[in-house]
Amino acid sequence: MHCDLFNAGRCRSCQWLDIPYEQQLLDKQRHLSGLLAFSPVDQWLEPVHSARQSFRNKAKMVVSGSVERPIFGIVSPDGTPADLSNCPLYPASFAAVFAILRQLVARAGLVPYNVARKRGELKFLLLTGSEYTGALMLRFVLRSESKLASLKAQLPWLQQQLPLLSVISVNLQPIHMAILEGETEIILTKQQTLLERLNHVPLHIRPRGFFQTNPAVAARLYAAAASWVAELKVRHLWDLFCGVGGFGLHCAGPDVRLTGIEISPEAIASARLSADEMGLEQIDFQALDSTGFAVSNASVPDLVLVNPPRRGIGDSLCDYLSRMSPRWILYSSCQATTLARDLQALAAYRIRKAQLFDLFPHTAHYETLVLLEHTPD
């Protein structure tokens, strides 16, 4: 992948861009194999490749420059901005959207926020696209509501220019720091979710919800999980840290009872909406802390599926799983070092399968899926 900003040393988000892609995969696989060397792995599956460019469905843009000439991209520590509107990681269609948004910034008088001077209103733009429908979701991160009326007045023009823009919201982030978002989200459109479909599963993305930024590889990750679970013929599974339900809904079926747990009520609302659309009945999605839910339960399902944030599942959940000993654990990890730590704590489990999914090309990051079976002495 060619990137002028990388070659000029102005953007290093893709730290590994100068490494051939096949070598990137080899290095990631070696890293993962080294971390899991403490335990035998019965079956290593081939790493899942990604497209080299245009694979990201979401752009997070710092807004800098002036109201007449806004710059969307990143700002270096010395305050120098870099325009990422044509970043090759994004779909080609995003560049035209950003061109319209530059006009919108001027029309609405959204002065870009300056962290050093603590002045301005518009901090970030977050654009997400659906590969399934082509629709777009746009979030404006503002410092206050002072320009909210001006922005609302420009929405008819904006939607006329961008008919695929179906979800628009404003997030208020008043803190004088480069923090991405605040707690208050104001939806400006009737439609509140962006529909994506991965494999056969409809998934609803909300403005503040987490969703994988590489849908093509995420679809293969979910499909692998569904295939592995189907081979086990489980009757009841928990999906902990379930988000909008991607893993659980792929693994669910008429003969499988699913309990999905996620602390975000918005994510749970999306998961329930998907389950209803799929006509699934043996489904129970709850907005609870995943660890708290698990450790307070006296019963245990056939399989526990976990997809935690980078910090991993932690000591409390590892202790619970070790004590209650469900036969199967399916662990999806975005941070292999915490995965290895957690697997070492789950000493009574054997790694039956492991596979690397390259959701983050040109970086050191990757996703890992491992299937564990309880094998007591």
UniProtKB/TrEMBL annotation:
Recorded superkingdom: Bacteria
GO molecular function: 4 iron, 4 sulfur cluster binding; iron ion binding; rRNA (uridine-C5-)-methyltransferase activity
Enzyme kind, highest EC tier: transferase
Keyword Methyltransferase recorded: yes
Reactions catalysed according to its record: uridine(747) in 23S rRNA + S-adenosyl-L-methionine = 5-methyluridine(747) in 23S rRNA + S-adenosyl-L-homocysteine + H(+)
Database matches in Pfam families: tRNA_U5-meth_tr
Keyword rRNA processing listed: yes
Residues where S-adenosyl-L-methionine binds: Q212, F241, E262, N307
SUPFAM superfamilies in alphabetical order: S-adenosyl-L-methionine-dependent methyltransferases
Purpose: Catalyzes the formation of 5-methyl-uridine at position 747 (m5U747) in 23S rRNA.
Family: Belongs to the class I-like SAM-binding methyltransferase superfamily. RNA M5U methyltransferase family. RlmC subfamily.
PANTHER family reported in the protein's UniProt record: RNA M5U METHYLTRANSFERASE, TRNA (URACIL(54)-C(5))-METHYLTRANSFERASE
Name of the molecule in the record: 23S rRNA (uracil(747)-C(5))-methyltransferase RlmC
